[in-house]
Amino acid sequence: MEDLLLKCSVHKDETLKMFCQDHIQLCCSDCVLLNHRQCTNVSLISESVKKLSLDMKQLSINLQTIIHQLNMF
Predict the structure, then answer these.
(1) What DSSP string describes 38-67?
(2) Is 18 exposed, middle or buried (0-12, 13-18, 19+ CB in 10 A)?
(3) Is the predicted pLDDT of residue 13 greater than 60, yes or no?
(4) Looking at domain 2-71, which of 3.40.640.10, 3.40.50.300, 3.90.226.10, 3.30.160.60 is its CATH number?
(5) Do residues 28 and 12 lie in contact, with contact meaning Cβ atoms separated by under 8 Å?
(6) What ranges do the domains of the chain cover?
(7) What are the backbone dihedrals phi and psi of residue 32, each rounded to the nearest 5 degrees, phi first?
(8) Which residues form the B box-type domain (predicted)?
(9) pLDDT for 73
(10) What confidence tens digit (pLDDT) does each residue in 27-71 have?
(11) Closest by alpha carbon to 44, among 20, 13, 22?
């Protein structure tokens, strides 16, 4: 089952390694070369996850600040 989730649906033997933010799509290397050359936001999945993690931490901090401010009223 895990292999099914990690493999490209178009290029069956390729592993999904990239994420295209422009299309919100997981891609294998072949897909990137064939369909995402013009995209400006293609990165490794591992790098996208790191960035998302940082964004979520910042969101949490912002929400805590807002809640604190609301509680002061």
Answers:
(1) T-S-EEEHHHHHHHHHHHHHHHHHHHHHHH
(2) buried
(3) yes
(4) 3.30.160.60
(5) no
(6) 2-71
(7) -60, -45
(8) 3-47
(9) 75
(10) 999 999 998 989 999 999 888 777 777 777 888 888 888 888 888
(11) 20
Residue 72 CA from chain centroid, whole number: 36
Q: d(Cα 23, Cα 41) in Å, to the nearest integer? A: 9
Sign of CA pseudo-dihedral 11, 12, 17, 20: positive
Element containing residue 19 per DSSP (H, E): strand 18-20
**Strands 18-20, 25-27: parallel, antiparallel or unpaired by DSSP?**
antiparallel
Residues comprising the chain, all counted: 73
